Structures are given as C-alpha cells and as structure tokens.
Amino acid sequence: MDENQVENNKESNQENTPEKQNIVPRVIEDEMRQSYVDYAMSVIVGRALPDVRDGLKPVHRRILFAMHDMGMFHNKPSRKSARIVGEVLGKYHPHGDSAVYDSMVRMAQNWSLRYPLIQGQGNFGSIDGDRAAAMRYTEAKLNKLSEEMLHDIEKKTVKMVDNFDSSLKEPSVLPAKFPNLLLNGSSGIAVGMATNIPPHNMNEIVEGIIKQMDNPEITVGELMECITGPDFPTGATICGRNGIVGAYTSGRGKLRLRAKTNIEEVKNKQKIIITEIPYMVNKSEMVKEIANLVRDKKVDTISDLRDESDREGMRVVIELKQNADPDVLLNQLYKHSRMQTTFGVIMLALVDNEPRVLNLKQMLQHFIDHRREVVRKRIEFDLNAAKDKEHILKGIVIALDNIDQAIKILKESKAVAEARQALIANFSLSEKQANAILDMKLQKITSLEQDKIRNELDELVKLIERLTTILADEQKILDIIKNELIEIREKYGDERRTGIAEDGDEDIDMEDLIKPEEMVITISHSGYIKRVPVETYKQQKRGGKGVIAAGTKDEDFVEDIFVANTHSYLLFFTNKGRVYWLKVYNIPEGSRIAKGKPIVNLLNLENDETISTYVPVKEFDDEHFLIMATRTGVVKKTNLSQFSRPRNTGIIACTLHEGDELINVVLTDGKKDVIIATKNGMAIRFNESKVRAMGRNAGGVRGITLKGDDKVIEMVFASENKTLLTVTKNGFGKRTKISEYRETNRGGVGVKNIICSDRNGPVRAIRSVSEEDDIMMISREGICIRIPVNGISMIGRATQGVRLMRLSEGDELVASAKIVTE
Predict the structure, then answer these.
(1) What angle, rounded to 10 degrees, do the helices at 97-106 and 58-69 form?
(2) What is the pTM of this model?
(3) Contact of 756 with 678, CB cutoff 8 Å
(4) Domain end among 460, 492, 524
(5) Is 92 a catalytic residue?
(6) Are residues 323 and 382 in the same domain?
(7) Residue tagged active-site, from 137, 580, 585, 614
C-alpha cells in the first residue's frame, strides 16, 4: 500500500470517529413514546376515524373524488373497478390495493350502507358473507346521491391540500349536501379509541336539522321527537329506547337489535319466518348457529330449518315441532344466537382533526356549520365570477356604444398590442376589457346580438345584487341550506326500515354471579375511578412510608378513597347538588397501581360537575334519611325513598345557593347525632331531629355559622362508643372522645376541634372511628398508608395531635378513609 492510500485511510477513520459523527443521545423510552404517539395520530387522523363534516374517512373521500375526476357519474357508463383502484392508488392513496377495493365495495353494498354511494355492476358480495369478485371483473360508477356529496367542489368551497407527493391537490373534506356521517354511519378502530356510529333515516335527520336551524337552543329530547332512532339498512327491531337516549345525549349507548319475525301456521304446523336480521350479521352464519343449537340439543323444538331467501327478499324458515311454543323458542334463539345482537354506539368523529365524542345535537350543529361555510364560499365564488363577467360585458357595451370609433381604432392600428393600448386609452378600459373587445366576433355587432349582451349585463347586475344581499344576511344562507336539504329529502328520502319496540332493553341481571366482598374505591383528581379488593393493601404500623395506592401521571393525584360492598348501590352526589346511581360491581376493577377508568364514562356528568361524596345503599326504603352538608354550613334531610329512581342524566338532590357546593351526604335512621367540622378546626354537634325532612328540591337550613374564610370540611355521625379522628394537611392528627363534643342546637359556631398550627396545617378530614377500625390515608403524590386506629393517640379537643403519616418534602395529605375490619 503506497503512502497516499495510507493517508487516505487515516483521514477516513478520523471522519468516522464518534467525535465527528452527528449522534444525538436519546432515551429509548422517550423515542418509543414519541414514535408511538406519531403513529397513533396518523391512524386517528389519516385512516380510522371519519370527519364530522362529510362523514368520510380519507380512503372513502379519495375514492369518490377520484371517480368524480374521472367523470364517472351516475348517467355515464361504468368502468372497471381495477381502473378506479389504480387511479386512487397512483394519485391519492398510496396503500394496498385491497384496502381501496374493499372500501369501494362496501360503499356499493345496500346491506352495509343505508344510502349506498357507489353503483356497482357485477358481484359485489352478499349478506351471506360472500366476497366480491376480483376488481378486474367488476365495474362501478358514482351513485346519484354521492354526486350531491361532491356538488360545487369546483367552486373552491373546500380546502384543497397536497397529495402524498405534492404533485396534485385533493380535498381535505367534501362539500357534502347531506349529513353522511349520520345517514350512513361509520365504524373504525384507531389507537386507544374506536368509533361506531349507526346509520339513520334521511327524512328524520333532515327534519331534525331544520328544527335545529330554526331553534338553536333545541334540546336532544326535542330532536328525538323527529329523530326517533337509528335506521339500519337491514331493518330489524331496536328493543327499548334507553340505549337510544343514552347514545343521543352522551354519545355512547348500547342498542339491542332483534331479527324481525312473523309466525305462520300451515296444516296445524307452526313456522317462524325471519324476514330481517340485525345489522352486520352474516345470514348464513346465523342459520348455522341455529342449526348448531339444534345439534347440541340446546334447542329441542325445531323440526326443520331452511333458507328460502331470493331476490324478492329475505326468508329464513324455522319449522316447529308439534305443540311447541313459538314465543319460548324465539326467546331461546334471541339468547343463544345472533338473532339478537348488541350495537355499541360510540359517536366519535374528528372535529378540526381532533377526536371527540359528540351527542346528536353537536353532530347536527357541526354539519350545519360546515354547510354554512360551503354555501358562503360558493356564493362568494359565484359573485366573483359574476363581477368578472360584468366587468367584461361593460367593456363590450362601451365598445358597442362607440362601435364606429372602435372599428376606426382597430383599422388604424398596425398590431394587436397597439390596438389594445388605443382602446384602453380612448375608452378608459382595463386590459381584460380590451382583450374581450379584440376577441369579439363581428356578429356581435348586429342589433339582436347587442340586445342579448345588454340583457345579459342587466341580469348580471341583478345577480350580483342578489348574491351580495345573501352574503350580508346569515338567515338567507340558512334558508339556502334548508331548501337544499328539503330538495335532497324529496329526491332520496324513504320510509324507516328499523322498528323500535318500547320495551325489551333490560340488561341481564348478573348480580347473582357477583361475589359479595368489600372493595376499595379510588378516585383521582382527574376523575379516574377503580375498585380494588381491600386485601390488596397490607397493614402497617403508624408512621410508616406506605405503598402506592394508584398510578399517577402528569399532575394527577389520588383525591378520594372509600370502601363499599360489590352488591351495594352507589349514590354519587355532585358539587352541584345532583345525584347519580351505580352498582359497585359495574365500576371497573383494576390493580393496585392502575389508574382506573374516567368516571365520565360511567356517569353522564355535566362539563363543570364533579363528584363530592358517595353513599353505599343496600335498598331504598322510607325508614332512612340522607343528611346533606354544604361548604357554607347548610344542612338538609331528605327521605331515602325519594332517591330510588335516578335517571341517567341525574336528579336534583339539593338546591344550592350561588357559590355554594355540596360536600358530604350521610345515611341515617332519623335519630342520629352529627358532627360538622371546618377547615380552621371548629366543630359542632347536634341531633338530626332538629332538621326537618324536606323534599329533593329544597335548599336546607343553617347547620353551623362560619367565621372569616372558614369552610365546612366534613360531616360524620356522633356515636358515643366511637372516637373522632381528625387529620391535617401535614400528616398530623388525633383521636378525641365523642363525649367531649357537647350537643347543641344547629346553627351555632361550635367548639374547638383541633389546633391548626403551622406544624399541623388546616384540617383535611374527620372520621368517626372505633378501636377495631383501620384508617387509610392518601397523599398528593399517591402514597397510601393503612394503619390501625388503636395505634393513634386519644387526646383532648383543643390539642395539636401526633404524626400519622411521614410525608416527603412538598407532599401533603389529601384524603383518608375508614376501613372496617371484618
């Protein structure tokens, strides 16, 4: 090797040393997290979820736009599906051809879409699960209805964006004359979320939109007077309205769908005829399921089963044995086969590229807003085009009014450019007007043609005035949207296919299968809830460091914890004085470090509503009462029976004054003493007999008089055989005999409960405890400690107490709960 080669190798090695390379150190967890978030957002926005405005995912939008570009309208010949797929792949959607073809096939199936968008020719599959023929065999074109989705797209009504290689433009959304998201529904699984929107009837949806446009303050309940429920392309029957109400009010609900049947009797032999089946059920698979039930002897009253469906419609015949009861058989089939299914509604769609769960009114409003923008842009486009044409015609009219002089100028000009400049100079024309005069044919000089031009100019002036008036009046734009919707309804509207039964949506009672056991219910500051068996937490001595009670993330922390039996009812009382109902076993069970499930997914809370307290109830009777306390010291007593039937949207538990909030509710027998404690260490004890029973809508009476910035922290029972445990912000606390709190009339200022020194901090909670109880305490950082009550010192009222929990620097105690030892 010569000297030059050696020198070159040395330089090459030096360039590849770590010091010369541009390497950025990065923690692999951070890289994986960021990469997964990027992938998730790509799936959410670019693949799996529909846009709330046109109800389409990107692949469907690109298929329709490509077919529109190819001129494949409903009144033109069909073209090979392979050509359409190639056009979509090459120009707009660089993914697998099967993904594009499968999406196109579904848009042509009248059992998949309530209002199909593509007109297919050839084998496009069947409701029995048969696959469509290969794309080289089938042909397709746009349906007449889908052309309404693309109407006015050439008038700059929607934003056009670059395609994948920036060589072409594609629409970010279609103009969509009708609310396709609700009419055809949508389903998709993204990352961490899914959507499942049912299809609806066009007549009902259009009527609902018009009602909402006439009355923007309309409620979901009022909308449901015309939009009675989903309308599936396969018909069938929705059992009950509870699921519909839940879906329309909260965006989530469960619909129970049953096949539509009738009973025929021929020669003393009864037959069950299935004419419609639930949405997305494979008919041949359903028939196989029923045959398997007979084979496995789960059903023993069927003598014959056959599918007699043809082009006239569906007909599955189930022949019964002699003396068999068809109603009993139907109930068995509903339970064990897909003659009855559940459609889980999740009305999730992209709003400004962000996934949001929407209720019915919000979905309609987003469509109205989209159409308002599209119509406004269309009118602006037409107005600009009319003004441009008016400008040209004005120039031509000027030339016609001075035709002899104009011809003279043209004859004397040596070139076109010279003639153009002369026309501009002599008649004060623009360059566009001068070019139009130069391009004008001589036949336009005839009087008849001149009249046509002048009439056209007059019409343009009127059009410009009309369009300008429309743009200045929002109501006129809404009227245009309304008239277009009515026109769509008259062209494409049809009768409902899916019936709605008034009952039949009751859930199967699974309570007998649930083991009765005590559960620790944990709720975080961000509103996450879970249940964990009490045995999960090991007992520790006073002053220990504790274990993690719940996984915390970002700024979240555990805010409340309590214990309830799996078979108990939970009454959830909110800060706004409302109450919601739930069974404990319906709360999702998690591990000790799990974060839990958002409580908003379990209860239909309002946006600014938070849970204040929770009362376990075995049964609702007339012998018990609920005593409520508010932040400003108001108390109220109401009979328990008045809370036996809360609605999904909650019911009023207590009417609050402005600025007040409900902090605690306790269940009593009408004879208890209660103690109300405040933040600044005061407490009052009185018998509940001093508070008369009131109705749910009442506001209550004064329980304790507060001084300065003091606020009520908690209310507990005053049992003589128990002690009052008080814990403070800095982890200190004490026990005091209940007898040390003398009984007084309600409304007083109370007595000193604990000294709130700098060491202690303000009171965080009080609990009525006995010697065999355990106490669980939670810090802001999620640290939990469980200690026996008998390990806590019992001292007088006006004292500071002892350390109960050793907190790290910056941490503080936020909640405590009593656990009764079995």
Answers:
(1) 80
(2) 0.60
(3) no
(4) 492
(5) no
(6) no
(7) 137
